[in-house]
Specification:
The complex is a heterodimer of chains A (about 110) and B (about 120).
Chain A lengths: L2 E4 L3 E5 L4 E3 L1 E4 L5 E7 L5 E7 L5 E3 L5 E5 L4 E6 L8 E8 L8 E2 L3 E6 L1
Parallel strand pairs in A: 2-12
Antiparallel strand pairs in A: 1-4, 3-9, 5-6, 5-10, 7-8, 8-9, 10-11, 10-12
Chain B lengths: L3 E4 L2 E4 L5 E7 L5 E7 L5 E8 L2 E5 L6 E7 L2 E6 L8 E8 L11 E2 L3 E5 L1
Parallel strand pairs in B: 2-11
Antiparallel strand pairs in B: 1-3, 3-8, 4-5, 4-9, 5-6, 7-8, 9-10, 9-11
The chains are: A mainly beta (about 110), B mainly beta (about 120).
Chain lengths: ~110, ~120
Amino acid sequence: AQSVTQLDSHVSVSEGTPVLLRCNYSSSYSPSLFWYVQHPNKGLQLLLKYTSAATLVKGINGFEAEFKKSETSFHLTKPSAHMSDAAEYFCVVSDRGSARQLTFGSGTQLTVLP
Amino acid sequence: DTAVSQTPKYLVTQMGNDKSIKCEQNLGHDTMYWYKQDSKKFLKIMFSYNNKELIINETVPNRFSPKSPDKAHLNLHINSLELGDSAVYFCASSHFTLQGFGSPLHFGNGTRLTVT
């Protein structure tokens, strides 16, 4: 069985300050993990993915995430927030027991203050 | 050259009506999905097709019927619409993987269905 928990439903940062969006997962197998971003009235866009290669994964728009097996975490970070980063972010887990299903977290709304 | 396109973008209809949402992808993917996103942004898979074969069929009322005429198209028909069907419906596609996981999804921009 797989599950994912996004620890914060809302995160607010000032422009130019670091972003941290937290995600913990549970998986019976070695999982694949993803972060997606959803801007208002848009579909979800893949930011980055982890599939058992390097534990530090770099994505688009300056985002990166680190897979920590010991902590069952896959937190998303960015050194400096931009106004355009304001959106909903979803952490997603998939494992070989999932029959090609992805399990989505409940989402974190990121607000960037000027 | 939109990768995953779905129509219509907005759909407002009355209870009891029948409506369809269409989806097309030009990414060459062989697997397509329908997801439902509720008012709290929670995403739940409804159906998945691989090469026109239904492979995921979650607990969804049988008023919802997907149809895949070919691997680039996946349509969703909804009969006897109810108030609770109001949501945003997303189409997505991906490559099939032998392991059955690990392939990222490409999403359409969604269809906002409002049932009055």
